[in-house]
C-alpha cells in the first residue's frame, strides 16, 4: 500500500459507532457485527455443554454434599442462562461502542481481577476474598494463555484497528474483542449466577474451551474483512529472516538487510521498551569497542565473513555439539565444565572454524555480527550463572548457544520482539526448568522433555525458523497436560489443609468456651472428663456442621453451663428441687450429643449410670453400699470411638500449642523483619527454593495463603505438598539461608537487564582507567 492510500484509511472517530460516521464507522460496524454474531454463537454453544459437564461431575462427586452443589448449579444455570448471555453480549457491545467513541476501557486483567481487600476480622468476607482469588486466578490464566496462543492474529487486529482509529495505539488489553476484555465481560456477567465457586470455575473452563478457543476464527474473519477494505493488506506478523544468499556487507563493514525485506512493526506491547533496550545495547557495545586495545583478529587479513559463512561455520560446530550427550539428570561435573568452557570461548572457536572453511582466518567480523556474537555469548553466560535455574538445567540450556547464535544472525529481530518464537521457546524452557527438582521429577519426564527439545534443536535446526514454534507447541502441550494433573493434586492439598484448619479453629473455639465456663470451679473428675473429652468433641462437630453462630451451638453451650451448675453443693430444699429439674434436660442433651459423636449405646448407658449415682449422692439419696464404694473411686475413662480419635484431645492440650505463639513486632530482629516484609507481599504462584540440613534442595510454589491462619502452603510441580509456614516461620527460614525467592519474570528479560548492567559497569571501569 502506498503512503497516500494508507493515509486515506486513517479516519477520525470522534462520534459513536454508527454508519453515518464515515468509512471508519462503517468498518467498526462491520467488526461489531462479526463479533456479535460469532460471540452469540460461541456463548450459546458453551451453555449447551454446561449441563452435561455438571451432570458428569455430579455422578463422580465424592459425597452427597458435593453432588448437590453440582445439581443446584445445573438448576441455577438453566434459570439464569438467558440473563447471563444477554449481559455478556451487552457488555461486549458497550465496549465496542465506547471504543468507537474514543472512550477506551482502562480495565486491565490484573486490575479487574484483583479482589478488594476484606474487612479484617470478618470470616465471611475472608471466604469471599478466597473465592475472588480463585476466580481471579482462573480469569488471569485464561487471558494470558489465549493472548499468547492468539498473538499473531490478535496483533494484526490491533494494528488494523489502530489505523481505523487514527493511529491510536491499541494493545491486547484494550482491544474490545481481545481475550482480556471478553474474559472480564464474562466474569461480570457471571455475577448474575448464584452458584458455588466450584460450579463457576467449571463454567470458566467451558468458556475457555468453547469461546476463547474459537476466537481465532473471529480474528481471521475481522482481519479478512478489513484487508478487503484496504486496511493494511500487506501487514505481516511473521519471522522474516536474512537468508545467507541475500546477505551482504556494506561499506562500513556492517551487514545489509536481505533483498526485498520489509521492516515489520514491533508488537505494540513492547516496541518502545525493546527499541530503547536495543539502542542502549548498541551504545554500550560501541563504547566497548572504542575502549578495546585492538580490533578482533587485527593481525590476520581477508574479507569480512558473509552471513552464509558464519551460518556454515556454526552448523559445523552445532553438529559437533549435538554429538555430546549429557547423562540423565546431569549434575555439575566434567561435562558441565566443558559446556561452560564452550560458552565462554565460542567466538574463538567460530573464528577457528571460519579459518578452516576458507583457508584463512578472517581479520575482522562485521560490527553487527560481532555484537550479535557477544550478546548471545553474554546471554548464555547469564544462564550458567542464573541461580533461578537448578544447576542441572543451567548446563542443559547452555547447550543451545550455537542454535541461538544462528537464529540471531538469521533473524535480527530476535532481541527486539518479546513474542519472537525463539525467545518464547527459551523463556518457556527456563520457566519449566525453574520448577525442576529430583524429588518432583522422579520419573524424569520433565528432564527428558527438556533434553529432547534441546537435542532436537541441536540436531535439526538449519535455517528454518519455524522449528522454534513447533518445539514451543510441544513444550506447551507437555506443560498443559502436567498442569492439569498438578492442579488436581494441588486442589486436594489445599482442601485438605483448609479442612484441617477449620477443624483446628473449631477445636480452639470449643476449648475456649469450656475453659471460660469452668473458670475457677473445681469440678469432679467425672464431670470434667465428660466436658473436656466427649462434650468437647460434640462442640467441635457442631461448629463444623452447623456454624459458630448456630442455634445448635448455643444449645450445646447452655448444656455446659447447666452441667457445671449441677455440681454446686446442694444444701437447701430449693437447691435440691432446682437440681432435680435440671437432670432430665442434662440426660436428654447427653444422649443426643454423645450419639452424634458416634458413642455406642452401651457406652452412653454406662456414663449415664455413673452420673445417676453421682447425682443421687449430691441429693443425699440412699444408694447400695457397693455403688457408694464404686463412686468413691475415680470412674474409669470412657472409650473414645475411632471415628473421632483425631479430635479427642483434652482441653488443656488444645490450648497448649507453643507453635502458634510468635514474638511481638518490636521483639523481631531487624534482619528477620526485613525478610518478613518480603514474605508479606508474596503472591500465590511465586516459586521458592528450600534447602535442607542434608544439602537437599526442593523447589516449591506458593499455592495458597490461608484466610484463617495466614499460613503459606507450598507444593512442588506435581502439586504435592512440600510444607506450610506462618509468615514469621518463613521469614526465619529465609533469614537462615534455607529458603530464597526465585524470580518470576522471564529469563530473557532478566538476562537483558543483567547484560546492560554488566556493560555499563565495564564502561565505567574503562572510563576510570588511565
From TrEMBL:
Protein's recorded name: DUF1631 domain-containing protein
Region of interest (Disordered), ranges: 1-25, 100-119, 622-641
Record field: compositional bias (Polar residues): 1-18
Coiled-coil annotated residue ranges, if any: 486-513
Biased composition (Low complexity): 105-119
Segments passing through the bilayer: none
Keywords: Coiled coil
Pfam family membership, one: DUF1631
Amino acid at each position: 500500500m502506498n503512503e497516500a492510500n494508507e493515509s486515506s484509511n486513517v479516519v477520525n472517530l470522534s462520534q459513536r459507532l454508527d454508519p453515518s460516521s464515515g468509512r471508519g464507522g462503517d468498518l467498526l460496524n462491520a467488526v461489531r457485527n462479526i463479533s456479535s454474531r460469532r460471540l452469540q454463537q460461541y456463548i450459546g454453544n458453551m451453555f449447551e455443554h454446561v449441563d452435561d459437564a455438571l451432570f458428569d461431575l455430579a455422578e463422580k462427586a465424592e459425597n452427597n454434599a458435593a453432588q448437590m452443589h453440582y445439581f443446584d448449579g445445573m438448576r441455577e444455570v438453566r434459570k439464569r442462562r438467558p440473563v447471563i448471555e444477554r449481559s455478556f453480549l451487552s457488555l461486549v457491545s458497550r465496549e465496542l461502542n465506547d471504543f468507537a467513541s474514543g472512550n477506551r476501557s482502562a480495565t486491565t486483567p490484573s486490575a479487574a481481577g484483583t479482589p478488594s481487600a476484606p474487612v479484617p476480622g470478618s470470616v465471611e468476607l475472608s471466604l469471599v476474598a478466597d473465592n475472588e482469588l480463585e476466580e481471579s486466578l482462573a480469569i488471569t490464566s485464561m487471558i494470558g494463555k489465549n493472548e499468547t496462543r492468539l498473538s499473531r492474529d490478535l496483533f494484526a487486529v490491533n494494528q488494523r484497528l489502530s489505523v481505523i482509529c487514527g493511529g491510536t495505539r491499541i494493545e491486547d488489553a484494550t482491544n474490545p474483542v481481545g481475550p482480556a476484555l471478553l474474559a472480564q465481560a464474562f466474569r461480570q456477567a457471571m455475577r448474575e449466577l448464584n452458584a458455588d465457586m466450584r460450579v463457576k470455575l467449571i463454567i470458566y473452563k467451558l468458556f475457555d474451551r468453547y469461546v476463547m478457543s474459537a476466537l481465532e476464527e473471529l480474528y481471521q474473519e475481522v482481519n479478512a474483512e478489513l484487508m478487503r477494505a484496504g486496511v493494511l493488506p500487506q501487514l505481516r506478523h511473521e519471522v522474516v529472516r536474512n537468508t545467507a544468499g541475500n546477505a551482504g556487507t556494506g561499506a562500513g563493514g556492517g551487514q545489509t538487510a536481505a533483498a526485498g525485506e520489509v521492516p515489520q512493526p514491533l508488537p505494540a506491547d513492547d516496541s518502545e521498551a525493546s527499541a530503547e533496550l536495543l539502542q542502549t545495547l548498541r551504545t554500550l557495545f560501541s563504547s566497548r569497542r572504542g575502549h578495546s586495545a585492538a580490533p578482533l583478529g587485527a593481525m590476520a587479513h581477508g574479507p569480512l565473513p558473509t552471513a552464509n559463512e558464519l551460518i556454515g561455520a556454526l552448523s559445523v560446530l552445532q553438529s559437533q555439539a549435538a554429538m555430546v550427550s549429557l547423562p540423565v539428570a546431569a549434575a555439575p561435573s566434567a561435562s558441565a565444565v566443558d559446556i561452560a568452557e564452550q560458552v565462554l570461548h565460542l567466538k574463538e572457536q567460530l573464528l577457528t572454524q571460519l579459518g578452516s572453511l576458507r583457508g584463512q582466518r578472517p581479520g575482522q567480523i562485521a560490527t553487527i555480527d560481532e555484537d550479535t556474537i557477544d550478546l548471545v555469548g553474554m546471554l548464555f553466560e547469564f544462564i550458567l550463572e542464573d541461580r533461578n535455574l537448578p544447576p542441572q538445567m543451567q548446563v542443559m540450556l547452555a547447550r543451545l548457544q550455537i542454535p541461538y547464535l544462528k537464529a540471531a544472525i538469521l533473524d535480527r529481530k530476535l532481541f527486539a520482539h518479546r513474542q519472537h518464537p525463539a525467545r518464547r521457546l527459551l523463556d518457556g524452557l527456563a520457566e519449566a526448568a525453574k520448577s525442576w527438582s529430583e524429588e518432583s521429577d522422579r520419573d524424569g519426564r520433565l528432564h527428558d522433555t527438556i533434553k529432547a527439545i534441546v537435542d532436537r534443536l541441536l540436531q535439526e535446526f538449519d535455517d528454518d525458523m519455524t522449528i522454534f514454534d513447533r518445539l514451543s507447541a510441544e513444550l506447551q502441550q507437555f506443560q498443559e497436560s502436567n498442569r492439569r494433573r498438578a492442579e488436581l493434586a494441588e486442589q486436594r492439598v489445599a482442601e485438605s489443609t483448609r479442612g484441617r484448619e477449620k477443624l483446628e479453629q473449631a477445636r480452639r473455639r470449643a476449648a475456649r468456651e469450656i475453659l471460660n465456663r469452668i473458670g475457677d470451679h473445681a469440678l469432679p473428675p467425672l464431670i470434667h472428663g465428660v466436658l473436656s473429652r466427649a462434650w468437647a468433641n460434640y462442640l467441635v462437630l457442631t461448629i463444623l456442621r452447623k456454624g459458630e453462630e448456630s442455634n445448635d451451638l448455643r444449645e450445646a453451650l447452655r448444656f455446659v453451663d447447666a452441667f457445671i451448675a449441677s455440681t454446686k453443693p446442694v444444701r437447701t430444699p430449693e437447691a435440691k428441687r432446682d437440681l432435680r429439674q435440671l437432670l432430665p434436660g442434662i440426660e436428654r442433651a447427653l444422649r443426643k450429643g454423645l450419639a452424634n459423636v458416634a458413642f455406642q449405646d452401651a457406652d452412653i448407658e454406662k456414663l449415664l449410670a455413673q452420673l445417676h449415682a453421682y447425682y443421687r449422692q449430691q441429693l443425699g439419696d440412699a444408694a447400695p453400699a457397693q455403688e457408694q464404694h464404686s463412686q468413691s473411686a475415680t470412674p474409669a475413662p470412657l472409650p473414645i470411638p475411632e471415628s473421632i480419635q483425631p479430635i479427642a484431645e483434652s482441653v488443656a492440650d488444645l490450648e497448649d500449642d507453643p507453635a502458634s505463639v510468635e514474638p511481638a513486632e518490636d521483639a523481631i530482629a531487624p534482619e528477620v523483619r526485613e525478610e518478613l516484609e518480603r514474605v508479606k507481599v508474596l503472591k500465590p504462584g511465586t516459586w521458592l527454593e528450600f534447602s535442607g540440613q542434608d544439602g537437599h534442595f526442593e523447589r516449591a510454589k506458593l499455592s495458597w495463603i490461608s484466610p484463617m491462619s495466614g499460613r503459606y502452603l507450598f507444593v512442588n510441580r506435581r502439586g504435592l505438598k512440600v510444607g506450610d509456614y506462618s509468615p514469621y516461620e518463613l521469614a526465619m527460614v529465609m533469614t537462615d539461608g534455607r529458603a530464597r525467592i526465585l524470580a518470576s519474570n522471564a529469563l530473557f528479560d532478566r538476562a537483558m537487564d543483567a547484560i546492560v548492567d554488566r556493560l555499563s559497569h565495564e564502561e565505567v571501569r574503562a572510563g576510570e582507567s588511565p
